[in-house]
Amino acid sequence: MPRINICKYQLTKLSMSFNGVLALAKIFLGVYTLSLFPILSACYSLGIMIAKYFAITEHKRTTKESISSEEIERRHYRCYQLIGVVILVSSLLFIIYSLRLFIIQEPLVKYSTIGAITIAAVTFFEIGAAIRGVFLARKKEDRLMESIRLTNLATALISLVLTQTAIMSFAHGGDYTIYIGCSGVLFGGIAAIIGGYMIVKGRVHMNSEKSVYKRLPSN
């Protein structure tokens, strides 16, 4: 069973720290502007940080312990499923907040043109890199790295809502809260599907593994 390359492992630790710093910055921004949107986005970043922590911890355990490749695969799938739960729950909370925007209008953060373009460029780069990473991890059958890439993809999808908010803050003169709500439901739903897919995939593998074990001849 392949294991996470040490370089990728270190980059994952770095990105996890970045998620924590980004979450704190969003919380500060939300408090400063009296807007719940950045705070909720911060909560999503914290959820993603927790998901990556699960992957890093599982990598450490399976690297240090002398266990069979079958046991490593089983643990990786279990961690894969757990990360899917984190993504699903975080995405559902984001959807609930987005639905709230259809009923209650609240002040949204204003961004400059340069700031909005920068956010958009970073977001689209993240999406491209995440999609490429998912395919590479699937090709190598590296479930832990695949879970990290899927986590990055879910984060990038949520960031699209922030990108829309940034662009519309200077390009749209009227109230655009309802558009942000629609985008939040759409991209939050796609992120939730990613989490659900990971849960189902992990469960299917665990069930098939149990079926194989039951078919083994007893001594």
Structural key phrases:
single chain, 219 residues, mainly alpha, Alpha-lytic protease prodomain-like, 6 helices, disordered C terminus, Cation_efflux_TMD_sf
Structure in words:
The model is unreliable at 212-219 (pLDDT under 50). The longest helix has 39 residues, at 177-215. It is elongated, with a radius of gyration of 19 Å. The chain has one domain: Up-down Bundle (Alpha-lytic protease prodomain-like), CATH 1.20.1510. It is 84% helix and 0% strand. By secondary structure, the protein is mostly helical. The two termini are 27 Å apart.
Please summarize what this structure is.
The chain has 219 residues and is mainly alpha-helical. It has helices at 6-33, 36-64, 69-100, 113-139, 143-171, 177-215. The chain crosses the membrane at residues 77-99, 111-131, 152-172, 178-200.
Strand content: under 5%
β-strand number: 0
Top CATH class? Mainly Alpha
Low-confidence stretches: 212-219
Order of helices and strands: HHHHHH
Q: Tell me the helix content.
A: over 70%
Helix/strand/pairing category: mainly alpha
* Major sheet: none
For this structure, the CATH topology is Alpha-lytic protease prodomain-like
CATH architecture: Up-down Bundle
User: In angstroms, what separates the terminal alpha carbons?
Assistant: 27 Å
What is the radius of gyration?
Answer: 19 Å
Global morphology: elongated
Number of helices: 6
User: How many domain units?
Assistant: 1
What value does the average pLDDT take?
76
Protein name: Divalent metal cation (Fe/Co/Zn/Cd) transporter
Organism: Breznakia pachnodae
Main location: membrane
Membrane topology: Multi-pass membrane protein
